[in-house]
Structures are given as C-alpha cells and as structure tokens.
C-alpha cells in the first residue's frame, strides 16, 4: 500500500493512515502531544498502548513467555528478538563481509563501526567523534562521572555495564561464565566466547581494505589498520595515540573496563 495516497492523509508529512482514529494518533507525533500519563512515575506517552507496555516496568508483569526456556518479557517484540537466541536466526546480512545479525539495528551499527569512517556524533566536552550515539553516550560518562548501573545486592554503582557484570560474578556469584569447550577459557559475554572460538577454527571474517590481511575480530581489524594510518588507536573506545607504548598503557585500563583480558599492540 502506498503510504502517501488515501483518504486519511496527514497534512504535515503526507503519510496516509487506515482510519480517522489512526490519523489522530499519528498527528500526535507532530504536535508532540502526550495525553497518557503514568500514575507511578509521571512519564507521558502519545498512545495508550505505549503506556500499557511502560506500566509493566512498575508492575513487573511479563506476559510474553519463551516456549523454550520459560524466560518472560514485558512486550512481544522482546520475545521475538529473544527467540533468535534459540533458533540462531540472523536474517540481516552485511554486504561487505560475511557477518550477519539477528537485528537490523545491530547490522547498521556494524556497518558504521567496522566499514565506515563516518563519525557524525561529537562529544560536547572534548570534541571526540563517534559513529553511533550509543558509543558517544558511554564516552560522556568519562566526563560526567555518571554511574547508571547499580548492583541490586549492595547498591554499588558502576560507569559501565561490563563492570557491573564482573562485580556480580566476583562478589555475588550471580553472572554465568561462558566457557570454551576446547580450552576451558572463561568469558563473561557470549559474544566474546564466540570470537574466541573463531581462533580455534581459524575463521577470520574481517578483511583489511588496505591489504590482503584477514583478522578474527573487528577489534583486531582496527588495531591492524593503525599500521596503515600510522597512528595507534584503542579498539574499544577509538582513542588515538602517537606512540605504541601510550596506547598499550591505555589498553590495559580500557580492556579492564570492558571486562576482558588485556590486549596489547
């Protein structure tokens, strides 16, 4: 159906809706009207359905249950995304390498971070630029000192989620280790284990666009590319250094923040 042809057409953007009620709801996007207010925290929404989903945060209600592992979610989309963990379905494929993703948003981030040099998001404190907003928000905490991740057991606060995970593991024995079946090495994130397993299989999906060299991970690709650019970059936060000794000193701290073993150039 052509969204720009039909009876119930928005005068602001030209989008057509299926009925008068849908058009009224759509117009609230432009007017920024949010008539539905949460009685617990006061947050407002344009649609009643959005308020219903939000209210489950306060009530703890999780009506959407996984039929494989019984894990529950407060909205259906989260369940759909979770099911791909069991099915292994990754329908979103990168056109530049053989990596694929379960979510289109993850593919978009991969393309920006790995295959593009475009960094349109700048830090207002130091001017450092980032490819995606998520990385900028994480970086800004270094300036503000914000610690949004708190332990539910002892209320200790952390700047990064990886720090919280490591704390839960070491102090409260809560987070599950992901263990390599071949060498028994342990990881706190499934993605880190997957990258590690590529080494056992000698799978190198990341190709340098300056030379024929192939790498195991996106981090290693960034590290290698600094040879061509004649500068040394941190492959966690993109900080740049003129000397190898300086980036290695930085990497020891930055890798600890992200909860993995130190990787030096």
Report on this model:
- This protein has helices at residues 20-31, 48-59, 76-87, 104-114, 133-144, 161-172, 190-201, 218-229, 244-257, and strands spanning 8-9, 16-17, 36-37, 44-45, 64-65, 72-73, 92-93, 100-101, 121-122, 129-130, 149-150, 157-158, 178-179, 186-187, 206-207, 214-215, 232-233, 240-241.
- The chain is α+β, with helices and mostly antiparallel strands and 265 residues long.
- The protein folds into 3 domains: 8-59, Classic Zinc Finger (Double Stranded RNA Binding Domain), CATH 3.30.160.60; 64-114, Double Stranded RNA Binding Domain, CATH 3.30.160; 177-265, Classic Zinc Finger (Double Stranded RNA Binding Domain, 2-Layer Sandwich), CATH 3.30.160.
- Strand 17 (232-233) and strand 18 (240-241) form a beta hairpin.
- The N and C termini lie far apart (54 Å).
Concise overview:
The protein has 265 residues and is of the alpha+beta class. Helix content is 41%, strand content 14%.
Helix % is: 40-55%
CATH topology of the largest domain: Double Stranded RNA Binding Domain
String of helices and strands? EEHEEHEEHEEHEEHEEHEEHEEHEEH
Assign the CATH architecture of the largest domain: 2-Layer Sandwich
- Per CATH, the class of the largest domain reads Alpha Beta
Order of strands, main sheet, comes to 1-2
- List low-confidence stretches: 1-5
Mean pLDDT over the full residue set: 79
> Could you tell me the radius of gyration in angstroms?
23 Å
What percent strand?
5-15%
Number of strands: 18
Distance between the termini: 54 Å
Q: Outline, from the CA principal axes?
A: globular
Number of H- or I-type helical stretches: 9
